[in-house]
């Protein structure tokens, strides 16, 4: 029996069984529905994309996976080279893993060991954001700040190693003033906090964060697992403000396979490059650099570039703003729109009870959580399909 995620198994609604998928559509035996959440924000090119299918078949005809311990292969080498060329600044060194959560764990481990290798053993603290979500592995839960996901950590009591602040510059400055000599990193989901409630904030916070990290010698980590590859309307937020470590996942392979990468700047990499064996990064997920995933990622990046996805995302945002302009309802707290993301936050989570089935009956798959009704659609969506998603959201409040 499957143990499903984020569900009380005793009371959960029976999940919809998918028998096929193509483009923006998921198919059950009864109907087709637009996937308005891109399979947790990853399927940016839609389902059954011919170019992605082809590279998957081609690579499987050679080999699907070999370990990177003592071995290497062209797909991993080519992806690391492409990322080094494609990403801004000196983000040149790719450490591969198999999920976004693990890739954030790697980033946090890098930040801690970077200072341990320098003899700065007092720098054990992480500065993170309120409402942060970085994954469900243990250190990412500690760095997170969402009791709905991470309440199990209450068993350990308050963390001595993580400080959470709001996305406000005075709070940021106060935290650096208080903890700067003990911090190894500032970890953020830049501009858009996903599972913490689709919360959006201004780039000025990140610009000030970069300046403070430089001033006090703290590493800046961007968790762009959800925000990368255009979701905020930027290719990467790292194009606006450069971090020392960048984490990518989800859309990296176009949603075909679980794979992620922690990309370090030259400064961080050189903190490990040494004759001393103990200064090596002792980490190695079994499926890091999986050949199938690397080929998919290379093709996914090619599609992103060739088809001018940033223009598609700008158009998606324009349509979303047009459709939701002036829309309000007494149960709605706020409507937030950024790039390829829209969120309707309600005052009472009970208001959204039943929406998933309501949307299903109208040909849309949606998965609201807590008090958040949102859409993060595939970038290949047509205007008529996006309008269907948005008008279904509005219809729930107007019924």
What does it look like?
By secondary structure, the chain is α/β, with parallel strands linked by helices. Helices cover 35% and strands 18% of the residues. It contains 13 helices and 16 strands. The strands form four sheets. A seven-stranded mixed beta sheet has the order 4-12-11-10-7-5-6, with helices on both faces. A four-stranded mixed beta sheet has the order 1-2-3-15. Strand 1 (20-22) and strand 2 form a beta hairpin. Helix 3 (74-86) packs parallel to helix 10 and helix 11 runs parallel beside helix 13. The longest helix has 18 residues, at 100-117. It starts with 19 loop residues before the first strand and ends with a helix. 44% of the residues are buried. The model has no long low-confidence stretch (mean pLDDT 97).
Q: Top keywords for this entry?
A:
16 strands, four-stranded mixed beta sheet, 13 helices, seven-stranded mixed beta sheet, alpha/beta, 399 residues
Outline: globular
Counted beta strands: 16
User: What is the rounded distance between the termini?
Assistant: 37 Å
Approximately how much helix is present in the residues? 25-40%
| Main sheet: strand order | 4-12-11-10-7-5-6
Give unreliable regions as ranges.
none
The helix tally amounts to 13
The averaged pLDDT comes out at 97
Strand content: 15-25%
Radius of gyration, in Å, reads 21 Å
| SSE string | EEEHHHEHEHHEHEEEHEEEHHHEEHEEH
Class from secondary-structure proportions: alpha/beta
Main pleated-sheet profile: 7 strands, mixed
Provide a brief overview of the structure:
By secondary structure, the protein is an alpha/beta fold.
């Amino acid at each position: 029996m499957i143990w499903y995620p984020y569900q009380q198994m005793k009371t959960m609604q029976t999940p919809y069984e998918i028998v096929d998928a193509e483009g923006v559509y998921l198919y059950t035996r009864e109907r087709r529905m637009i996937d308005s959440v891109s399979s947790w924000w990853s399927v940016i090119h839609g389902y059954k994309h011919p170019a992605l299918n082809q590279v998957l078949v081609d690579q499987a005809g050679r080999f699907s996976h070999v370990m990177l311990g003592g071995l290497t292969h062209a797909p991993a080498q080519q992806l690391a080279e492409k990322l080094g060329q494609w990403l801004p600044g000196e983000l040149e060194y790719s450490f591969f893993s198999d999920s976004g959560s693990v890739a954030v764990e790697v980033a946090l481990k890098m930040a801690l060991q970077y200072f341990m290798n320098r003899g700065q053993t007092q720098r054990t603290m992480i500065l993170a954001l309120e409402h942060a979500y970085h994954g469900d592995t243990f250190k990412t839960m500690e760095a997170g700040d969402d009791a709905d996901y991470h309440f199990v950590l209450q068993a350990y009591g308050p963390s001595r190693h993580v400080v959470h602040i709001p996305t406000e510059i005075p709070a940021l400055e106060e935290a650096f003033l208080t903890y700067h000599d003990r911090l190894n990193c500032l970890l953020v989901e830049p501009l858009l906090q996903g599972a913490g409630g689709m919360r959006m904030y201004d780039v000025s916070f990140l610009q000030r964060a970069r300046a403070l990290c430089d001033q006090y010698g703290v590493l800046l980590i961007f968790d762009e697992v959800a925000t990368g590859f255009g979701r905020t309307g930027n290719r990467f937020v790292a194009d606006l403000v450069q971090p020392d470590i960048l984490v990518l996942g989800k859309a990296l392979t176009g949603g075909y396979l679980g794979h992620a990468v922690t990309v370090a700047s030259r400064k961080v990499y050189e903190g490990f490059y040494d004759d001393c064996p103990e200064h090596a990064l002792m980490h190695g997920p079994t499926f890091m650099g999986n050949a199938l995933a690397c080929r998919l990622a290379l093709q996914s990046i090619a599609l992103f570039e060739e088809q001018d996805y940033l223009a598609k995302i700008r158009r998606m945002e324009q349509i979303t703003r047009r459709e939701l302009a002036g829309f309000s309802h007494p149960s709605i707290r706020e409507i937030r729109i950024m790039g390829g993301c829209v969120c309707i936050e309600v005052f009472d989570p009970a208001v959204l009870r039943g929406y998933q089935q309501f949307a299903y009956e109208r040909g849309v798959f949606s998965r609201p959580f807590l008090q958040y009704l949102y859409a993060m659609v595939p970038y290949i969506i047509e205007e008529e399909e996006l309008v269907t998603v948005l008008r279904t959201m509005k219809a729930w409040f107007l019924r």
